[in-house]
Structure prediction request, 483 residues.
Amino acid sequence: MPTNNHNNFDNNALDSAIRPAREQRIPVTLVPSRAQSSKIHIRQQKGDFQKIRTSMNSLLVALFFLLPFISYEGRQAILFDLNQQQFFFFGTTLWPQDFTILAWVFIAAAFLLFFVTVFWGRIWCGYLCPQTAWTFIYVWIETQIEGNRNKRVALDKAPWSSDKLKKRLLKHYAWGAIALLTGCGFIAYFVPARELYLNIFSFNASFWVTTWVWFFAICTYLNAGWMREQMCLHCCPYARFQSVMFDANTKTVTYNAARGENRGPRKRQQNPLSAEKGALGDCVDCNLCVEVCPTGIDIRNGLQYECIDCGACVDACNQTMDKFGYQRNLISYTSENALSGKAEPFYESYKFIGYGVAALIMLTVIAVDIYSRSNIELNVIRDRQSLYRETNDNKIENSYTLKIRNKTQQTRLYRIYVSGNNSYRLVSEANLKILPGEQLDYPVTVVAEPELLADSRNEITFTIAEQHNYGQASQQSSFFTPI
Ligand code: SF4
Ligand code: SF4
Prediction:
């Protein structure tokens, strides 16, 4: 019977390659990868992790295209309206001055990503990253048109013929169509979606909209069709710094070298410990784990920064293990501690705690920011022509301009109040109606009794309150007198 404990293999070469990286707890590139030297033709792989990845990628792609078509209260629910400088998110409107909240969201997302990375390694890259999702869509199209990996390799090597030309044209046409749809999908977050698709495909879109759609379409075509893993290897900063988040408990795709070596081909059901070819480990050297890898690496060489944790090699190896009747998970999502039989609780990891606390703080900041956000914006600007005026009935007048913005998506009714250490009286009309998103420049005059004013400069507070309790805003200013 095959066994998983092969203690008598020569693992000197393996020691020198893998153990230093494990001891330093950092992923490293130990050998020049195939990805850096030749075109990768990925073998399509089925399996549990590929089912999860395909489901998650499909969900994300569907959401990407469908979200702009959701309407809320008669308007596109999610829209960055650059012309009006507003971001509509269902019932909420964010203005440029509210964009700190977006900064908090990005910071919180970064800490959450780091938190997950400490636990699950580069799970983001393998399962959620748009680059991975679109690359697998493009590979799927390539497979449908040009055939499986072997056929694609053969087609690459074959001289040009009408069949090769037809397949290539069809593939690039399909890639181009997906790229154009992706360009529209992205710009649909900035321009009303329904009009956008109609205008683009009827050639009626404006110059700038057309330019941006084609810009993102070309980026998609190049990234998913041509650059693929090169984006992950050379352009993505996350690949470079994710190693600092790893520790001995991080679960990442790992080859169990102690179990797999010495690798070597053998007949199915052959006991790897038989003397026929010397003692063998469980790795049958089928090379499937390399052929399915989207970044073209050999995970048996140890932890490598090119690995995006997609799990394709795990599924491929499990398939081989099943065929040979060996135990699964020669390649698996596991941690250094689990592999060496050590137990180290996660809560003892300072990185895990640190990123978790940082993410919680940022989520709290977002909640407080949202809670304290006002739907009204008020700016009080004093009249610069004169400090004050004396009226015929010996009262003092000061003039102001109130800049009031209704930040909601509904028409609102407001009332202006003035208060301070004097009996101020508003001369202008106090009730206002402001349209959704409108900023009103509203001139007002305030009158006061001079004998009640203690100083030449007095405090005055303007308050604007929505008449149905949809919020209020206040701002202080000065009231001047001749004293
Ligand atoms: S080594 Fe395995 S998990 Fe890593 S990128 Fe390649 S196939 Fe995916
Ligand atoms: S898929 Fe598994 S058995 Fe095949 S070469 Fe890779 S590690 Fe060895």
Residues 253, 292-295, 297, 299, 307-313 surround iron/sulfur cluster (ligand 1) (CB under 6 Å).
